[in-house]
Amino acid sequence: MQARKDLVHCWSILLKHKVESTHSCVEYIENHLELLDFLVVSYDSKEIALNCGQMLRECIKFPTLAKYILESACFELFFKFVELPNFDVASDAFSTFKDLLSKHDTIVAEYLTAHYAEFFDLYDKLLTSPNYVTRRQSVKLLSEFLFEPPNSSIMKRFILEVHYLKVMMTLLKDSSKTIQIYAFHIFKVFVANPNKPQEVKMILARNHEKLVELLIDLTVGKGSEDEQFEEEKEMIIKEIVRLSRVPNLLNS
């Protein structure tokens, strides 16, 4: 056990070490990318999963290594690892997954643009997981990386999709208040979008009574955050009510 911890510590030091202006160990890994593949698949080995996870997160700090993992076949394995039955391993895998989607904005934006459908098909399963922790972590992460400026085109595409509107509406009804709040921050963009597709307008109009009821009951803590939340909520409720009064939307 101690030997593994020492190895992780040495790995971290070596990655940071420079020879003149070059991270020589990073360069070595760039030429031996199978090392990254090994670290990823090690989440399937409970004995070394946490150590390898730490080593992976050290690697992800470097753009070239993060880019490789995102674009590799191994990346898809994270959607399985974050739901492993061992809580510690699953949590560690989610930490690595989060780093991959948040450490390098431009690389992530390029990846999501090129692999939008495949990524969100897999991510959808996390948002609708029967596991509370998975749902909470996934909707929180989504509410963070969608709002990153480099992902604005991804956000614009996402909020045109009726399926994800329905997913957010379902999460607004979750038994967890925390999940409801994170879902609201994404749901509000669907509603506030000035270029809503007709089908989105129809769904909001048809469900206006239940949505307004849910939103009225939704609150956060005290203070300025609560004031801003209430202002946003009021604006969203007004827009939903307005849509419910548009001729033909309810009966389309």
From TrEMBL:
InterPro entries: ARM-like (IPR011989), ARM-type_fold (IPR016024), Mo25 (IPR013878). It holds the Pfam family Mo25. Gene3D superfamilies: Leucine-rich Repeat Variant. One of its GO terms (biological process) is intracellular signal transduction. It comes from the Eukaryota. GO terms for molecular function: protein serine/threonine kinase activator activity. Belongs to the Mo25 family. This is Calcium-binding protein 39-like.
